[in-house]
Specification:
alpha+beta, Porin, eight-stranded antiparallel beta barrel, elongated
Length: about 325
C-alpha cells in the first residue's frame, strides 16, 4: 500500500513538471522580437561632418608633398554617406632619388654652351659630352624641365561604415569608434616642380611637333636636327588628372560632436611624372598619352572631425 502511494506521488509530480515546462516554453519573453541594441546612439545618421586635416604623401618617387585640407561628409543613414574632399600642397619635400639624380655621378649635365664645345648650330643649350655618349639618361636640364609634382588633390566619395562600437582604454576610459571604407572619383592637379627649367628644344627654339617630320627638332627644313631633342623629347605633363579614389579610415569619438580622424586615401590617375618618352615604338620619339602610367597617390591623413548638429539622436 505504501509503495503504491509513493509511485502515485511521483507520477503526479512528473506530470506537473511537464505541464510547467510546456507552459514556460509557450510564454513569450519580454525581449522577443525586439532589436539587439535598444536606444542606440546614432553618431552619423543625418549629421554633417566637417574635418580639417593635415596629410603627407607616401608614394611619390620624386617629390613628397605635405597637404592641408578639409572633408565635408553627410550621412543618409548610420552606415552610408556622401563626402567631398580637397587638399592643397604646402610643403614639397624632394625625395632621396631626386636629390641623388642631381648630385655628381647622377644625371649627365652636358657641356656648358658658350664655354665648352657644343657646336655652332645649337649654341644656347647644354650638349651631351663625348664621355656620356653611352649614357641613355636625359641631360639634367631636360629632366628638370619635364618633372611635375602633385600640387592639390580632391575627391567625391561614397562612404560605408560597416564596423562601429565601443572601445575601452586602460580599463577605465570607454569611447565610441567606427571604421569606414570609401570609393569614388578622384582628381589630382599637377604642376612643374622647377617652373623656370627649360628643355633643349625650348632653349634652342626647336619645333617639337612630331607630325611635322621635316622640321622636327630643328628650326627649319634646311637646318640640322638637334640630337638631344630627338633622343629625349620633353613635355611636362601638367594639368588636372581624373581617376579613382578609395581608402579606409578610423574615427575615435572624443565627445558626441568631436572625433579624432585617421585615414589612408589613394587617388589613382594616369600621369607622366618625368615628362619623357617611355615607348620604344615611337619613331621618332615623342611624348604623348601613351607615355603615362597609372600612378597611386597615397596619403596618410590626420584630422579633427566635427559633427553637426552637436547632439546625436538615439533610436527608440
Amino acid at each position: 500500500m505504501n509503495t503504491r502511494k509513493i509511485l502515485t506521488f511521483f507520477a503526479v509530480v512528473s506530470a506537473l513538471g511537464l505541464w510547467a515546462t510546456d507552459a514556460s516554453a509557450k510564454k513569450k519573453g519580454p525581449l522577443e522580437g525586439e532589436p539587439i541594441v535598444r536606444k542606440k546612439l546614432q553618431l552619423r545618421r543625418f549629421r554633417v561632418q566637417i574635418t580639417p586635416y593635415a596629410a603627407m604623401s607616401l608614394s611619390q618617387p620624386f617629390v613628397h608633398m605635405g597637404y592641408v585640407g578639409g572633408k565635408l561628409t553627410f550621412h543618409f543613414a548610420d552606415w552610408i554617406g556622401l563626402r567631398g574632399t580637397f587638399g592643397y600642397g604646402v610643403v614639397p619635400v624632394e625625395s632621396r632619388l631626386l636629390k641623388q639624380s642631381q648630385e655628381p655621378g647622377g644625371l649627365p649635365v652636358g657641356n656648358t654652351p658658350g664655354v665648352d664645345s657644343c657646336g655652332m648650330d645649337f649654341p644656347n643649350a647644354p650638349c651631351r659630352a663625348q664621355t656620356d655618349d653611352d649614357n641613355p639618361a636625359p641631360l639634367l636640364h631636360d629632366f628638370r624641365a619635364g618633372l611635375v609634382r602633385p600640387q592639390w588633390q580632391s575627391s567625391v566619395d561614397v562612404v560605408f561604415t560597416p564596423f562601429a562600437g565601443k572601445l575601452g582604454l586602460f580599463s577605465g576610459i570607454f569611447t565610441e569608434y567606427d571604421i569606414y571604407i570609401f570609393g569614388g572619383v578622384g582628381l589630382m592637379g599637377y604642376q612643374k616642380h622647377y617652373p623656370d627649367a627649360q628643355s633643349t628644344a625650348q632653349q634652342e627654339g626647336l619645333n617639337t611637333n612630331p607630325d611635322d617630320l621635316a622640321t622636327y627638332c630643328a628650326r627649319g627644313a634646311e637646318d640640322p636636327r638637334n640630337e638631344e631633342c630627338l633622343l629625349h623629347p620633353v613635355v611636362a605633363d601638367e594639368g588636372v588628372k581624373v581617376g579613382g579614389s578609395f581608402g579606409a579610415g578610423l574615427n575615435l569619438m572624443l565627445t558626441d560632436w568631436l572625433a579624432l580622424n585617421l585615414e589612408v586615401q589613394d587617388i589613382v590617375v594616369g600621369v607622366n611624372n618625368a615628362g619623357l618618352n617611355a615607348t620604344v615604338q615611337d619613331i621618332p620619339p615623342r611624348v604623348d598619352r601613351d607615355d603615362r602610367d597609372a600612378f597611386h597617390n597615397v596619403t596618410l591623413q590626420l584630422g579633427a572631425r566635427f559633427y553637426l548638429p552637436p547632439k546625436a539622436k538615439r533610436t527608440k
